[in-house]
């Protein structure tokens, strides 16, 4: 499987990928570095033929309170209630090859092994259908609407429950 643990030496390439893929959602280098420092087991890199073509950033968090984009977390909160998927990003040429499914399966395994009852994320850039294929569904949290608007048009909070999930 081409997904592997991200290392500090990947960060410059991850930044280039992010700047290429997320034109409407730029994030500063320190955001990526902090995620890797705080929760390295939740940071993945996708390599193909020696070239970085994707990445994933995930970490424990409080359900229903997604972090603001391009913001530092300051730490992993005590009593985290969800395994939060901050970003799974693939270059266009890496899409349609099953890499998103592989990443999703790996993230679900990690969340389950770590004892989380769910994974959550904010779907942006028309990615809702991809996440639905991976077992996520749209959910709502009262008062979250204004924050979701900061993620861009059509952004939705999604969750995948693991309690009864056996995949």
Automatic annotation (TrEMBL):
| Annotated CDD domains | NAT_SF
* Gene3D superfamilies documented for this protein: 3.40.630.30
Q: Which InterPro entries match?
A: Acyl_CoA_acyltransferase, GNAT_dom
Question: Transferase: is it a keyword of this entry?
Answer: yes
User: What are the UniProt keywords, alphabetically?
Assistant: Transferase
GO molecular-function terms, A-Z: acyltransferase activity, transferring groups other than amino-acyl groups
N-acetyltransferase domain spans which residues?
1-163
Organism's domain of life? Bacteria
Keyword Transferase set for record:
yes
Q: This protein is called what?
A: GNAT family N-acetyltransferase
């Amino acid at each position: 499987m081409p997904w592997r643990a991200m290392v500090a030496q990947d960060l410059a390439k991850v930044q280039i990928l992010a700047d290429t893929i997320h034109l409407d959602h730029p994030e500063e280098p320190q955001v990526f570095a902090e995620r890797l420092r705080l929760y390295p087991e939740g940071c993945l890199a996708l390599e193909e033929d020696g070239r970085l073509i994707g990445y994933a950033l995930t970490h424990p968090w409080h359900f229903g309170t997604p972090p603001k984009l391009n913001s530092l977390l300051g730490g992993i909160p005590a009593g985290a209630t969800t395994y939060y998927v901050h970003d799974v990003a693939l270059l266009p040429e890496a899409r349609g090859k099953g890499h998103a499914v592989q990443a999703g399966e790996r993230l679900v395994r990690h969340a389950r092994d770590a004892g989380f009852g769910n994974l959550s994320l904010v779907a942006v850039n028309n990615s809702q259908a991809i996440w639905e294929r991976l077992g996520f569904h749209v959910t709502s949290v009262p008062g979250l609407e204004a924050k979701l608007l900061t993620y861009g048009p059509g952004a939705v909070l999604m969750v995948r429950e693991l309690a009864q999930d056996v995949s």
